[in-house]
Amino acid sequence: MQLILYNREQARRGRDAGLTLVELIVTVAILGILASAAIPIARFQVKRQKERMLRYDLWQMRAAIDAYKDAAEKHAFQTKVDSQNYPPDLQTLVDGVDVQGKKVRFLRHIPIDPMTGNDDWGLRSMQDDPTSDSWGGQNVFDVFTKSDGVALDGTKYSDW
User: Model pTM?
Assistant: First the structure.
């Protein structure tokens, strides 16, 4: 009698030890639904991070342009007469200028545009129209991204 009870108990444990096909299909379906909900959130986070980087890069370059102009207006170095004390290009901010025998740099490097993936920024000079997307070449008054994308808040990146 004891042998029969033991075999029944052992048989019951053997059946309960594994997953049935239905349980496995339900589990995979639930995981698929959760994964499909997580993908848009991940894309949203990536786009938000790129936007953050774009805002920071634009702020950094505009601050360097302003610092260059301030130093030029304080007669720390000579600029072209028609430049209105703005830098001739972004590379000048990286290469720096000589101020009383010392090289003063305003940017470490030209940042990579996170939206386009290259360092080819849109530039505006003082002589250009404020909404112009072509650079006159006289000086660098402002920078913008050449991306034609739209931000999460609905504005165009090129308007930032």
Answer: 0.72
